[in-house]
Write a structure and sequence with these properties.
Blueprint: H1 7-30, H2 37-51, E1 54-55, E2 74-77, E3 80-82, E4 96-105, E5 108-117, H3 123-141, H4 149-162, E6 173-175, E7 182-186, E8 203-206, E9 209-211, E10 217-219, E11 226-228, E12 234-236, E13 239-244, E14 247-250, H5 264-271
Antiparallel strand pairs: 1-4, 2-4, 3-11, 4-5, 6-7, 6-8, 8-13, 9-12, 10-11, 13-14
Helix pairs in contact: 1-2, 3-4, 3-5
Amino acid sequence: MIELKSAEEINRMAVTGQFVGELLAELSGVAAVGVNLMDLEHHARRRIAERGAESCYWDYAPSFGRGPFRNVLCLSVNDAVLHGLPHDYVLRDGDVVSIDMAVGIDGWVADSAVSVVVGTPDPDDLKLIEATEVALEAGINAAQPGGRLGDISAAIAEVARSYGYGVNSEFGGHGIGRTMHEAPHVPNNGRPRRGMRLDPGLTIAIEPWFCRSTDKIRFDKDGWTIRSADGSRTAHSEHTVAVTTAGPQVLTRRPSEGATSADPTKRSAAAS
């Protein structure tokens, strides 16, 4: 069942979204050569507790994971793209790390992710991150009232292919609101003017993710971490978005992004 949110409910989600955006920006600054992934995890735990928020990841137990998730971040490095378990790993020069988080405040949830390069960036990695950011903006711009869900999916896939990347449709975006995962599923590939109508009040997480040279994935033995099947580098970007009568409203913008989207090339370079 899809629950359309009122303007007041979207405003309450936006409070959560602001915190998520600010903390992701903070964590992006903390991520650096020599920093342990567990340092990022514990930094996030502390900030979430200070805010009185609740992690949506802690104790999350979907069908594909092995046991409940006992972290507040997904930290995916290099060929890992989704659901990476924080662990004892020290970031190295040139690593690509995706930081993904979802929290709830006063019963309303927001979810977002960003990929950054620590240390010396490889131009191919910056291009990959840029592609996910451009695809995310294209998906957001396609989330117009009266449009169709396929408009979002098709916009993401068009960007991916324009950069020369394939698209995997096994994992994508999702509805969000009172819980982290609600209907509908938002694929990263689809046909325009197809699928459910985008009515005002719909709130979704849009999350393009690409692998450099494959559209196939594999799971680690932990049952959580998803990697590119061929070991190539990956990147992932995500925002929580509300469809409103005035157009799409991004609820998880990071401070550096401002009210409107920034040049994705500059964002990628700044992230490095």
